Amino acid sequence: MNGQVWSRALITGGAGFVGSHLCARLLDAGTAVVCLDNLATGSRANVADLEPRPGFRFVRGDATDPEALAGLPGRFDLILHFACPASPVDYLRLPLETLDVGSTGTRLALERAHADGARFVLASTSEVYGDPLEHPQREGYWGNVNPVGPRSVYDESKRFAEALVTAHRGARGTDTAIVRIFNTYGPRMRTGDGRAVPTFVTQALDGMPLTVAGDGGQTRSLCYVDDTVDGVLALAASAETGPVNIGGDDEITMLELARRIIELTGSASRVRHVGRPVDDPARRRPDTRLARERLGWRPRVGWSEGLERTVGWFSRSAAA
Ligand code: NAD
């Protein structure tokens, strides 16, 4: 972790998929961790292994509640603002909550960072690029987002959060950074959250057809969660403000992904083509030059190896 060890970190959304991996990694590095989560889309099971460890504390609370944030005792030197419903199924079910946590939640987390003199990192997303007209997407690209489309609650929440972080830095000198995370996958994704990897893996393990949207020619660049965590912490440890893209380089079509998962699970499942969601981006691949040059980061786990680990985790969870 670039030799940097924080003494005490607050992770909003720490009981979610990516947040729980961040909590574990920071604890391993000797940082005390407070995980603030309202369990809207996360689960206590994600941090169950961490709860007995000294230095870890789970607080059930809402990041949009001023008292929940301001009321946390002690001082933090790192705040990672990861609270936000992140899968399309979740943010479409929780549209107003998604906008609130990007706006009020981000403002409150920034205020706490400012008061504590903490380094602050916002979890932003490749979705700020919308259905991109530039490929691959570099940080200077402004995006192609429909502000009133069904995905706008997520995309615009994150775009507003980025604006807020930038304004806080300029107006108040808060030590901030923005990471734009691309599709991340790995253990502790939730079955039924609608994202391609957990959906396909669960369908394959259950012997059900793998539901590929449209003709399956749309691409994503997958990043294994350990690599994403490395990137987030490298950014936190640096003096960079971002935005910085963190994501996988291997672009893969959804049809290829489904076939690879069928192969890995040894399933007899077939592919079934279903309707494509509105405003579903056709292509998505990060330009990661900035992260490579400024943070010395690069993804290390190829999608084949990462998928094997993920399938292994889902198989063990299903058997447990
Ligand atoms: P997740 O849904 O598993 O985790 C989000 C966590 O935030 C959950 O534990 C949820 O309960 C919590 N939460 C939501 N609203 C809250 C609130 N108001 N107060 C407190 N807690 C709240 O999603 P994830 O995939 O782990 O994503 C984590 C972050 O990373 C999100 O901000 C997301 O936008 C960002 N991100 C993730 C990906 C990805 O591929 N996983 C890609 C881009 C960006």
TrEMBL record:
<dbReference type="InterPro" id="IPR036291">
    <property type="entry name" value="NAD(P)-bd_dom_sf"/>
</dbReference>
<keyword id="KW-0210">Decarboxylase</keyword>
<keyword id="KW-0520">NAD</keyword>
<keyword id="KW-0456">Lyase</keyword>
<protein>
    <submittedName>
        <fullName>GDP-mannose 4,6-dehydratase</fullName>
    </submittedName>
</protein>
<dbReference type="Pfam" id="PF01370">
    <property type="entry name" value="Epimerase"/>
</dbReference>
<dbReference type="InterPro" id="IPR001509">
    <property type="entry name" value="Epimerase_deHydtase"/>
</dbReference>
<feature type="domain" description="NAD-dependent epimerase/dehydratase">
    <location>
        <begin position="9"/>
        <end position="247"/>
    </location>
</feature>
<dbReference type="InterPro" id="IPR044516">
    <property type="entry name" value="UXS-like"/>
</dbReference>
